[in-house]
Amino acid sequence: MKTKSLLIAANWKMNPLTLKEAQRITRSLELGINALRKKDFVEKVELVLCPPAIYLNALPGNRLWQYGAQNVHWEARGAYTGETALRMVEDSGAKYAILGHSERRKYFGETDETVNKKLLSLLNTSLKPIICVGETKEQRDKNETTKVIREQLKSIFKSVTVQNLSRITVAYEPVWAISSQGGGAAGVADDPNDVMGIIILIRKTLAEMYRSSMTEKIRIIYGGSVDLHNIDSFLEVDIIEGFLIGGASLSMFDFMPILRKAYVSRN
Fold first, then answer.
1. Tens digit of each residue's pLDDT (9 = 90 or more) over 205-251
2. What are phi and psi of 179, to 5 degrees?
């Protein structure tokens, strides 16, 4: 029996376009989870919804899930037009924040160094980070995946103390597998066996960096075109501790079956 809960983070990206539609999604989600008639759902599946920041204060709270921000700034406050402060996210009641998503890197110039600055600032709050790492297709084709992942981890975790490791989730997010890459074309998920190898690499690298058993407390999840058609194969890999799900999380016809499968896999 698998007793450890799965973390499933739903990244809505720049969707939906109205608050009314966002509320419709959350209502449908609540009805769908309640229809499972499983009182221990929240013990088996830790669900985090990450809507656009403008909706964080407007969507209803619910015992079935928590909220997270898609991005934050490292400064506490100031003249940073368009940015969201950590305290704003905390005040909304959210518990998580995604850091370093590949779309932030591609379109807004984020780097490992800026992700590190955000992480260090976030760890001074009550929020929990979901840190994205992953290689591009070009890097993968050149067999540079191991080098890229190790360099990302060493830069992002710079000056992070061992005491904070248990709060951190790392999302392995191969850039080439994300549906937003390539002009909106559908992405192709990584092979579950390859993901298993990368998760082992991430654990090994962090263990080498910290020389502490506390690295085992870090949760490692997978993100990259996870959907209803491939979730079963990923759930079979025990060391995948959750998923960062994009487009599929916006359709209850796709997302509810994914949540149901995730719940069943923990029994």
1. 999 999 999 999 999 999 988 999 999 999 999 999 999 999 999 99
2. -65, -20
- Give the other-Cβ count within 10 Å of 23's Cβ: 15
73 is catalytic: no
Q: Catalytic residue, from 46, 110, 135, 173: name it.
A: 173
Catalytic residue among 46, 101, 103, 110: 101
**Amino acid at residue number 115:** V
Domain ranges within the chain, ordered by starting residue: 6-265
Q: For the chain, what is the total number of helices (H) and then of strands (E)?
A: 10, 8
Grouping H, G, I as helix, E, B as strand and the rest as coil, residue 204 is: helix
The Cα 112–Cα 108 span in angstroms is 13
Q: Give 259-263's long-range contacts (Cβ < 8 A, gap of 24+).
A: 259/8, 259/32, 259/33, 259/45, 259/47, 260/36, 261/231, 261/232, 261/235, 262/6, 262/8, 262/44, 262/45, 262/231, 262/235, 263/36, 263/38, 263/41, 263/44, 263/45
Share of the chain above pLDDT 70, in %: 96
Give the Cα separation of 97 and 62 in Å (integer): 18
The Cα–Cα gap between 172 and 41 comes to 25
- The DSSP element (H or E) to which 157 belongs, if any, is none
Q: Rounded to whole angstroms, how far apart are CA atoms 157 and 181?
A: 26
Assign domain 6-265 to its CATH architecture: Alpha-Beta Barrel (3.20)
The pLDDT, as a whole number, for residue 36 is: 87
241 annotated active-site = no
Rg (CA), the chain: 17
Residue whose C-alpha is closest to residue 5's, from 38, 37, 46, 40: 46
Tell me, what DSSP letter sits at residue 189? Answer: P
